[in-house]
């Protein structure tokens, strides 16, 4: 587990941790960095990897020379595992409601398909976002990919994109053979998760395309029967918002064949501030061997909901609703998983949309 935290004053990049509240069984040291953005200078950003850790276990830990204690739970090493999924979070009252609901869901890991803080070049909003998500992100692993609001590139003033995102949300990209923090993959409890980057090169000559091709070729479905992809700009979307964007259309044209041929089970998308679930689909048509596409960019951002949909509703779109919320993916075993979407104005036990997913690896009609 990598733990990242930011301090205004200097502190050693060390973590004490253990399986008892004293948190003094082990001690690991990492590195400290920072970044500059025009006139803003970040605090000290500390990165410490701790472990090896036992699966499905609560660990207690302390950061640097701070007496404050934290705890987190590691993911299970085998089924079942529960993912919380929420995109386009932001920092509104709706965001707080989404986080409260997620916190009640007893999830093992959070997956976020882009658009985190909505800082949009105002760097202290990254700090307030960190404080907002700290109660949850300090207790469970959060795995994220970037969206358009993470680019933060200003001509002449700041030419380097993703400066704050790459410094604050360092993902394990090198471990998956990627050359960029903007796309990577990892295995957890029988699930292979792929995070793609909508806002970096994705054509067939790009590093991302070649990396994805190799990554999918190396998936061992006996070891990880489920394959899940996250991307910010949606490849399928019947909302009026964000139609005709290159990051959606051109990336889909470039990579959809790879996703289909690898029999990816489900693709989570963000960007559109509403919920939508498609059938299994390929090349804009229903296909029992294609992924289920789910738009989950409804975390609670300040730009509001995308309330207008294309009419009539396409046949491949099975459920759509403009509301804030989050989803959970319960992967029970190698064959079955339950996807559920929860609106913020309902208590957690109420499912507004749910579907059982059957693993494509075991579908004899889909030759692997």
From TrEMBL:
Keyword flag Signal:
yes
Q: What is its EC number?
A: 3.1.3.2
Organism from which the protein derives = Lupinus angustifolius
Q: Which family does it belong to?
A: Belongs to the metallophosphoesterase superfamily. Purple acid phosphatase family.
> In this protein, which residues make up the domain named Purple acid phosphatase N-terminal?
1-74
Specify the superkingdom. Eukaryota
Which cofactors go with this protein? Fe cation; Zn(2+)
Domain (Purple acid phosphatase C-terminal): give its ranges: 290-347
* Entry keywords, A to Z: Glycoprotein, Hydrolase, Signal, Zinc
Listed under catalytic activity are: a phosphate monoester + H2O = an alcohol + phosphate
Q: Which PANTHER family match?
A: ACID PHOSPHATASE RELATED, PURPLE ACID PHOSPHATASE
Gene Ontology molecular functions:
acid phosphatase activity; metal ion binding
- The name on file for this protein is Purple acid phosphatase
Pfam families reported in the protein's UniProt record: Metallophos, Metallophos_C, Pur_ac_phosph_N
Zinc recorded as keyword: yes
For the Calcineurin-like phosphoesterase domain, which residue ranges apply?
Answer: 81-275
Source lineage: Eukaryota, Viridiplantae, Streptophyta, Embryophyta, Tracheophyta
């Amino acid at each position: 587990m990598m733990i990242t935290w930011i301090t205004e004053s200097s502190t050693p990049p060390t973590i004490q941790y253990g399986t008892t509240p004293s948190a003094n069984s082990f001690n690991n040291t990492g590195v400290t960095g920072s970044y500059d953005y025009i006139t803003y200078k970040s605090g000290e950003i500390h990165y410490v990897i701790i472990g090896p850790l036992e699966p499905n276990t609560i660990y207690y830990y302390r950061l640097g020379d701070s007496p404050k204690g934290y705890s987190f739970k590691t993911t299970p090493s085998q089924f079942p595992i529960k993912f919380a999924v929420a995109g386009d979070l932001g920092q509104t009252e709706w965001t707080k409601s989404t986080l409260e609901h997620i916190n009640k869901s007893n999830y093992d890991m959070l997956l976020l398909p882009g658009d985190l803080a909505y800082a949009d070049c105002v760097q202290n909003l990254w700090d307030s976002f960190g404080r907002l998500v700290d109660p949850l992100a300090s207790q469970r692993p959060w795995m994220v990919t970037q969206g358009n609001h993470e680019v933060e590139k200003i001509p002449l003033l700041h030419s380097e994109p993703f400066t704050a995102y790459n410094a604050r949300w360092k993902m394990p990209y090198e471990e998956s053979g990627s050359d960029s923090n903007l796309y990577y993959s990892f295995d957890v409890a029988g699930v292979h998760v792929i995070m793609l980057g909508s806002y970096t090169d994705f054509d067939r000559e790009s590093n991302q395309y070649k990396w994805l091709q190799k990554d999918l070729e190396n998936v061992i479905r006996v070891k990880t029967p489920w394959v899940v992809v996250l991307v910010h700009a949606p490849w399928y979307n019947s909302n009026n918002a964000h139609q005709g964007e290159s990051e959606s259309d051109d990336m889909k044209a470039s990579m959809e064949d790879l996703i289909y041929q690898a029999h990816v089970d489900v693709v989570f998308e963000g960007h559109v501030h509403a919920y939508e679930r498609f059938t299994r689909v390929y090349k804009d048509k229903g296909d029992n061997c294609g992924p289920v596409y789910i738009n989950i960019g409804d975390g609670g951002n300040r730009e509001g909901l995308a309330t207008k949909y294309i009419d009539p509703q396409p046949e491949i779109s099975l459920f759509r609703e403009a509301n804030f919320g989050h989803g959970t993916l319960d992967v029970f075993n190698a064959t079955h998983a339950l996807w559920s979407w929860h609106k913020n104005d309902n208590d957690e036990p109420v499912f507004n949309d749910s579907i059982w997913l059957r693993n494509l690896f075991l579908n004899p009609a889909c030759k692997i």
